[in-house]
Design goal:
Length: 226
């Protein structure tokens, strides 16, 4: 699975591709298929902290843009990787960037495992939540059988872009109450006033591997691609 994610990253032509892990098994497998691998501490609370350690170890300059691909997303299209990077490159005031896709199903809109995001008029995140946001008082007071139509309802796609200068700041930020309550690492950045640029996309990410049942589904898709 990790090799497939690595190959998706190779497709982008990025200047440098690094696998970051705290697991010796992953380290050994990644080295075996030819990847550059950095072993990190086991104490990190999230992937952003892990990448901040990698940036320090490899001496990346402050203006370098880093895109974080999760190791369980073997079907991620390279177009979404490009879009994440462009969100930073085109918005100098942003410290982070990410993506979102419209939510169309009621089930996703009220599913706490589906992270929602609301945007301001300039395309920056105002808040992320596992709760249904925006909460349409008039529509939802009668029940949750339909989604609001008064404003877009977006699902957050969990891929981040960072400036290395921001990663250095993040490593020194204390965990915040909102981050702990929602279990969403990006809320730490918002609480400290960091702007997160969001790019709405129509193309959803490929199916990720979150459960054992996902494995066969993804394998079938990969066979079709090959």
């Amino acid at each position: 699975m990790i090799q497939h994610v690595w190959e998706r990253a190779l497709d982008t032509g990025a200047n440098e591709i690094v696998i970051a892990t705290d697991d010796q098994r992953i380290f050994d497998v990644a080295r075996a298929f030819g990847a550059e691998v950095v072993m990190t501490a086991v104490t990190h609370e999230n992937g952003t902290e892990r990448i901040a350690e990698v940036a320090e170890k490899l001496g990346w300059a402050d203006d370098v843009v880093v895109v974080n691909l999760q190791g369980d997303e073997p079907l991620i299209p390279k177009e979404l990787i490009f879009a994440t990077a462009k969100g930073l490159l085109n918005n100098s005031q942003a410290g982070m960037s990410s993506l979102c896709v419209p939510i169309e199903s009621v089930e996703d809109g009220f599913d706490p495992n589906v992270v929602k995001v609301v945007l301001d008029n300039q395309g920056f995140a105002m808040y992320f939540s596992r709760a249904p946001i925006p909460w349409d008082r008039d529509t939802y007071k009668g029940g949750t059988g339909t989604l609001t139509s008064i404003a877009p309802v977006y699902r957050h796609v969990g891929m981040y872009g960072y400036r290395v200068s921001f990663l250095r700041e993040y490593a020194s930020m204390e965990m915040t109450a909102l981050e702990q309550a929602e279990c969403l690492e990006q809320l730490r950045a918002l609480c400290y006033g960091v702007k997160i640029h969001m790019t709405p996309v129509d193309q959803p990410p490929g199916h990720g591997v979150d459960t054992p049942d996902d494995v066969s589904r993804v394998e079938q898709t990969l066979l079709k691609l090959n």
